[in-house]
TrEMBL record:
The chain crosses the membrane at residues 12-33, 53-73, 85-104, 124-143. Belongs to the UPF0719 family. GO terms for cellular component: plasma membrane. Coiled coil: none annotated. Its main location: membrane. It holds the Pfam family DUF350. This is DUF350 domain-containing protein.
Length: 144
């Protein structure tokens, strides 16, 4: 019974640790998107109910979630390495997503700042949202 309790406590601690790192990465990702949008993103979503800002933020969160899940999967039960990998790979994913948004703005001409000023859902927001998820998936698979 002692061994089972020890396994459960250790497992619960690992879950809580990964969840904490994941939540921190989600918050960092949210604020990076916030920097790319005019106004406070939380207000643009909550008060203005802007569908473009909501879709971009949601897709970024999904991408970060993919990276966190892949990092956990690839840790092979090594908690310290897994947590460090999750933090590093999550931050790399956030940086790559941000660079992709800037690149789309420059090369394709799709500006996040312009998109979130639009009250109606725009095709460019859909494209950037899929790009977020694709970059998250690419990063996640690279981690594995």
């Amino acid at each position: 019974m002692n061994a089972l309790l020890e396994i459960l406590v250790r497992g619960a601690g690992a879950i809580a640790s990964y969840a904490a790192v994941g939540v921190i990465l989600l918050i960092v990702g949210f604020y990076v998107i916030d920097l790319a949008t005019p106004g406070r993103l939380s207000e643009v979503i909550r008060t203005d109910r802007n569908p473009n800002a909501t879709l971009l933020a949601a897709s970024a969160m999904a991408a970060i979630g993919l990276i966190v899940a892949a990092s956990i999967w690839s840790s092979g039960g090594r908690l310290a390495e897994g947590l460090a990998g999750t933090a590093v790979f999550g931050l790399v994913g956030i940086v790559v997503q941000t660079l992709a948004m800037l690149l789309f703005d420059r090369v394709v001409g799709i500006s996040v700042r312009d998109l979130v000023k639009e009250p109606e859902l725009q095709p460019g927001a859909r494209l950037l949202a899929v790009t977020h998820v694709a970059i998250g998936l690419i990063t996640a698979v690279a981690v594995i």
